[in-house]
Design goal:
Blueprint: H1 2-23, H2 56-59, H3 70-73, H4 139-165, H5 198-212, H6 214-223, H7 225-228, H8 237-264, H9 274-306, H10 309-314, H11 342-358, H12 362-365, E1 411-415, E2 418-422, H13 424-429, E3 433-437, E4 450-456, H14 457-462, E5 473-477, E6 486-489, H15 491-495, E7 500-505, E8 508-509, E9 519-521, E10 534-539
Parallel strand pairs: 1-10
Antiparallel strand pairs: 1-2, 3-4, 4-7, 5-6, 5-10, 7-8, 7-9
Helix pairs in contact: 4-5, 4-6, 4-9, 5-11, 6-11, 8-9
């Protein structure tokens, strides 16, 4: 009796240890070292009769829900012993035969003993799927922003190409600040002079639209940010190429927008000239953009058709639900409660773009809206009066000295085998003509039409024997530093009757900052090619 009394608690402790050992680790939890494929599977403990120990409910002959197990109440043979779990046919050692054991390939993902690579598990942070929890993210919202950018960036690229063509870069090396462009200039054509507001329109649209698209671009990047942190970062050579194109796409668009905004504000903190940086950056970006569109436009079209616009625009935040999971990786597996509807997100982005439109467009449109152009470069207004319109560079900034434009100033006009020199009074004595033209600059700003008066360029060409079909002209300035101190103009620009060597504006002599004693003014010409402080005109100059 004493012996049995002592052994009974020991047996109970042993049965408890067996039950705990069988149930650990819980299903789906890995133990340390379980990702090593060469580690053998831990053998399961067995009871003295060769059967695995079971849970308390199994030892009581019940299922996990507390109901009797019909499989244990039926059948022939002696009733199962307490703790004997129902198993496949056991082998002679009391363990299931190998055919009944799960192989590594058959075990579910995350099961103990599954051989998985260490890098397949994302590190803590943004690479984990549950890190990004906004219920708004999904293919539909991303596709809406993508559609707006698809249309907007296409217009930006076309107007950017036109802006480059307006410089007539193929005319002469001095006009081209990207001399190694090669075949990238395949589309170039002689820039026209009609309509006279052409460059003002194309460059105004280019700059204004670029600024207006900034909120849409940021919203698009926000909507796809989980994909930027996809794990593993590289899965195959094809995936590596896709990630490289994504790097060029995101890096290219950020580079173009940032350099563009800095150029608008005349804030040149980047190394090198803005023109080649923006030009080559645009081609790198547009290449990645085209590849991205080709591969993603079917997905975008499907996503846009998956939801009705009217329904989404009527759904408040309280009834906003995540989009169905799909293979894009944008829908979070652990959504947070919505704090904004998709209607609210679209409205916020649209309002941001509208505000930027109001504070930007006036610098190109002019009139009363010019006062609302808060993002236009400031400190460039020379005051009121006939010369009271915007300038880009002052005489002092480019090194103009008093003697360069004083009484000793001369205008030299050259042609094939001829050269003539004129004082300002002599130029004023030539036939004078008037033209109402704006100045439009690459930064996006432009002036209203100003009334210029001076000598027509084709009349000056006639003074050196080029009366019929005058050729192009090479214009040189007294400017001593900075870019664009000279420019080549095409023959169609010389022959336009509104193309002048201007001496006066709005009924008054030019101010020094506006180019006194003489400057070029040509319809639809970029502002930097309307050369100021002109000293020499060479018609038919070699290119």
């Amino acid at each position: 009796m004493i012996t049995l009394g002592v052994l009974r608690p020991i047996c109970r402790i042993r049965w408890l240890c067996v039950a705990v050992t069988v149930r650990w680790p819980p299903e789906g939890m890995d133990v340390e070292g379980s990702d090593r494929g060469d580690e053998p599977r831990r053998p399961e403990p067995h009871t003295p009769d060769g059967n695995a120990g079971g849970s308390p409910s199994e030892r009581d002959g019940q299922t996990g829900k507390g109901r009797p197990d019909p499989d244990r109440q039926k059948g022939s043979g002696p009733p199962p012993r307490a703790g004997a779990a129902k198993r496949p046919a056991d082998g002679p050692t009391g363990r299931p035969p190998k055919s009944a054991q799960a192989t590594p390939a058959q075990r579910p993902a995350g099961a103990p003993g599954r051989p998985t690579a260490r890098w397949s598990s994302p590190p803590p942070g943004p690479a984990r799927p549950g890190f990004w929890r906004s219920p708004l993210r999904g293919p539909w919202l991303t596709s809406v922003f993508g559609l707006v950018l698809l249309l907007g960036i296409t217009v930006l690229f076309v107007t950017g190409l036109l802006s480059y063509a307006a410089y007539n870069p193929n005319l002469a090396p001095g006009n081209d600040h990207t001399p190694e462009k090669g075949w990238l200039g395949f589309y170039l054509f002689p820039w026209p002079t009609r309509p006279y507001w052409l460059y003002r329109l194309t460059q105004g649209v280019h700059v204004t639209l670029g600024v207006v698209l900034i909120p849409v671009l940021l919203a698009k990047l926000w909507s796809v940010i989980p994909r930027l942190f996809a794990w593993p970062p590289l899965r195959s050579p094809r995936h590596a190429l896709e990630r490289l194109s994504l790097l060029l796409l995101v890096g290219g668009v950020l580079f173009e927008f940032v350099t563009g905004v800095l150029n608008i504000q005349l804030h040149y903190i980047f190394p090198g000239s803005f023109y080649p940086l923006h030009f080559y950056g645009a081609w790198v970006f547009i290449g990645a953009f085209v590849v991205h569109v080709v591969f993603r436009i079917p997905t975008m079209a499907t996503a846009l058709r998956s939801r009705r616009w009217r329904t989404e625009l009527r759904t408040p935040a309280a009834r906003t639900r995540p989009e169905p999971p799909d293979d894009t990786g944008l829908v979070t597996p652990d959504p947070a409660p919505p704090t904004m509807s998709r209607r609210g997100a679209l409205g916020m982005v649209g309002a941001g773009s509208l505000v930027l439109l109001v504070v930007t467009a006036g610098q190109s449109i002019g009139g009363a809206l010019r006062r609302t152009a808060l993002l236009a470069p400031h400190g460039r207004e020379p005051g009121t009066g006939p010369n009271g319109f915007q300038i880009n560079k002052t005489a002092a900034a480019v090194g103009i000295r008093a003697r360069d434009i004083g009484p000793d100033w001369r205008l030299v006009v050259r042609g094939p085998g001829q050269e003539r020199s004129f004082t300002r009074e002599q130029v004023l004595a030539l036939p004078q003509h008037m033209a109402a033209l704006p100045i439009a600059c690459v930064e996006g700003w432009s002036t209203d039409d100003q009334i210029w008066s001076g000598v027509r360029l084709h009349d000056l060409a006639a003074l050196v024997g080029l009366r019929e079909s005058p050729p192009g002209v090479f214009v040189e300035s007294a400017q001593r530093s900075g870019s664009f101190n000279s420019a080549h103009l095409r023959d169609n620009q010389v022959r336009d009757p509104r193309a002048l060597l201007a001496l006066r504006v709005n009924g008054a002599d030019l101010s020094v900052d506006h180019g006194y004693p003489a400057r070029i003014i040509v319809p639809a010409n970029p502002g930097v090619h309307n050369t100021k402080w002109v000293t020499r005109l060479t018609f038919g100059a070699p290119r």
